[in-house]
Amino acid sequence: MPQPLSYLKETPSQTAGPYVHIGLTPNLLGNGGIFPQDLGLSPIKPGAKGEKITITGQVRDGAGMVLRDALMESWQADAAGLYNSPSETRGTADPNVIGWARIVADFDTGDWRLDTIKPGRVTLPQGGTMAPHISLWIVARGINTGLQTRIYFEDEEEANATCPVLSRIEHRGRVPTLLAKKTGPGQYRFDVVLQGEDETVFFDL
Amino acid sequence: MTDAPSTGPLLARNRLWHPPAYTPGYKTSVTRAPSRALIALPSTLSEETGPAFGRDMLGELDNNLILNFTGEPAQGPRMIMHGRVLDEMARPVPHVLVEIWQANAGGRYRHKKDGYAAPLDPNFGGCGRTVTNAAGEYEFLTIRPGPYPWPNGPNDWRPMHIHISVFGSGFGQRLITQMYFEGDPLIPLCPIVNTIPDKAAIESLTAPLDMQNSIGMDCLAWKFDIVLRGRRQTYFENRKEGL
Ligand SMILES: [Fe+3]
């Protein structure tokens, strides 16, 4: 017998269910008093360097219904393309860019909003430079494993054209599902479509 | 063991081990499941980095669900839930945020959308959080949640369970799951449990009773280890420029 590898298997995912806000945003839900404030209220602190932007959107299902129970988390680099993370080895990120936020769809309208700074390009240690993007992780009732997608920006044409992740999407017609549309100065719109004709590209990476 | 930050590429998820997106037995998944294949790529820095949470943000009772809502004790069977956060390489994952939420002893959630007849417990909020220590260990003091009915089939019940949200060192390890309790006869009947095709995978979500860590005349303990995606520890790269 060869030596055993002794690796483990990842814990299987289960849906976040309809009550995910009890655990992750109790104050927003109205169950205050457990923690002083919810985590992930903003990905930036005052003084964050970079262009201030606002992204708004909705998450829709395959029947065109807007999800009012979606909870998302965003993760992004600072304006120089550095992550505020112990695992970042390329340099030190802007201390005022946390980079992570929880985004909760409005319980009545399903509208969500992210106020942040536009991330910079991220140069990969193995070569190549990713276009500015915000990683987005989506959970809700009915979603068995959190969905990973990315918000890119339609006004970053040049960077998008050479992004090693975007360029790996064979169905070029689907790339626009990852592009936030500019609706005004510093204003973007990004809708997530879980299923159907305009289905957003979801990643396994 | 070293406290050096983890930087290696993430191991690919075994999608046959996780529930597929489309699981008609769990009706809500039918319109919320992507129908196109996921775009599979090696992890990038965006997945290999992630936010860090310090223990300094924690309040004294954050992981004590019996007391953390009002300070008065919640009703129901007292229990310890504890375990380790590991990765697929069996390495401890230290200093990561673990959040839980659950129904009360009667199976009722503190949520306006929960209309189950079982009463709310005025002293139970149903949520807690902690950060793993240097050995990847975590623990909660809580009450054992009751099973509850839910609108899916005409007579579907959730087994006793605790919802768990875990961070890794990289955002690509982000995981939400549920812990079940050894011996609960509702486990094999539950459509959400049964979104998972592999029996062994379901068993890995079932916490055993842990008498060694139970405290006489006080509370039972249940042990639940959480395994996150591994990070490769060898650095011989043979990637083409880019990815
Ligand atoms: Fe539940």
Keywords summarizing the entry:
heterodimer, A: 205 residues, mainly beta, 3 helices, globular, B: 243 residues, 5-stranded mixed sheet
Describe the structure.
The complex is a heterodimer of chains A (205) and B (243). By secondary structure, chain A is mainly beta. Chain A contains 3 helices and 13 strands; from the N terminus they run H-H-E-E-E-E-E-E-E-E-E-H-E-E-E-E. In chain A, strands 4-3-8-9-10-11-1-5 form an 8-stranded mixed sheet, with no helix packed on it. The longest helix of chain A has 6 residues, at 157-162. The radius of gyration of chain A is 18 Å and the shape is globular. Chain A starts with 19 loop residues before the first helix and ends with a strand. Chain B has helices at residues 29-32, 45-48, 199-203; strands spanning 39-40, 78-87, 97-101, 127-131, 137-143, 148-150, 156-158, 161-166, 175-181, 206-207, 220-223, 226-228. In chain B, helix 3 links the parallel strand 9 and strand 10 (206-207). The longest helix of chain B has 5 residues, at 199-203. In chain B, the strands form 3 sheets. A 5-stranded mixed sheet of chain B has the order 4-3-8-9-10, with no helix packed on it. Strand 13 of chain A pairs parallel with strand 1 (39-40) of chain B. Fe (iii) ion (FE) binds at residues 158, 161, 163 of chain B.
Blueprint (SSEs and pairs):
The complex is a heterodimer of chains A (205) and B (243).
Chain A: H1 20-24, H2 26-29, E1 52-57, E2 59-60, E3 71-76, E4 100-104, E5 112-117, E6 122-123, E7 129-130, E8 133-139, E9 147-153, H3 157-162, E10 179-184, E11 187-189, E12 192-193, E13 203-204
Chain B: H1 29-32, E1 39-40, H2 45-48, E2 78-87, E3 97-101, E4 127-131, E5 137-143, E6 148-150, E7 156-158, E8 161-166, E9 175-181, H3 199-203, E10 206-207, E11 220-223, E12 226-228
Parallel strand pairs in B: 2-11, 2-12, 9-10
Antiparallel strand pairs in B: 2-5, 3-4, 3-8, 6-7, 8-9
The complex binds fe (iii) ion.
Fe (iii) ion (FE) is lined by residues 158, 161, 163 of chain B.
